[in-house]
Amino acid sequence: MVYLEFNFTVIPTQPATDILIAELGAVGFESFVETESGLLAYILKSDFNPTDIEELFILKSPEFKIDWTQKEIVQQNWNAEWEKNFHPIRVGDKCMVRAPFHPRENVDFDIIIEPKMSFGTGHHETTHMMLQHILDTDFESKTVLDMGCGTGVLAILAEMKGAKALDAIDIDEWCFINSKENVDRNHCENIDVYQGDSSLLAGKKYDIILANINRNILLEDIPIYTECLNNEGALFLSGFYLEDLDAISSKCGAYGLEFEKKLEKNNWVSVKYVN
To answer: pLDDT confidence of 115, banded at 50, 70, 90?
Structure first.
């Protein structure tokens, strides 16, 4: 079988890359590799329709500059390529996020993730910072929401830290499937995984909400998160740049949430708010 490889250069990379992946997945692209400059995307040549690329919404947006090249490649061992490029991630001294083929090390929280086409391995700055927040927070007997769960890694660590009931939600079908696989892989018993968006949160209440998505969705959904947050609850947000922090904090403040803590890495930010 012959595949086509599309090499997209994306400026700025986020949230455009996430949107691009979602749109390409919907038209049959099978796998993706995020790069420093954008994205590699793969599709069977026999499944490719050139008009699908031309009609992508993200390519018409004036907010982003996206260029691409394409080439044919012969089928290869995709698992071997993935394994070659996937490295275990340490978060502090207590947590490791690794693939099934990595050896276990002596850490308190050993998380096994096989991301496939999902997001949230700990490699990206936003996921790494959210994992740091979880390590620094008491989750014992807490109810938790992991919104935009990707691989489910945040919910998995929260359960390992003692959370008693957790919902993990993602709008993407592949993330939904992959999160369920990773929840089972880590022998978690308290996590329910759902496919959908914030409309699933009606009537729900949580002690802690984790949302690692993107600026625009966060700004739209902060009122919903606030409604779902129990008294003395905590809201952890990431997926946006430092220059977006004022807008995020202003929105949270308008709904009675107070800024408590910020982590920053390579201009990405992760923030804790409390009510």
So the answer is: low
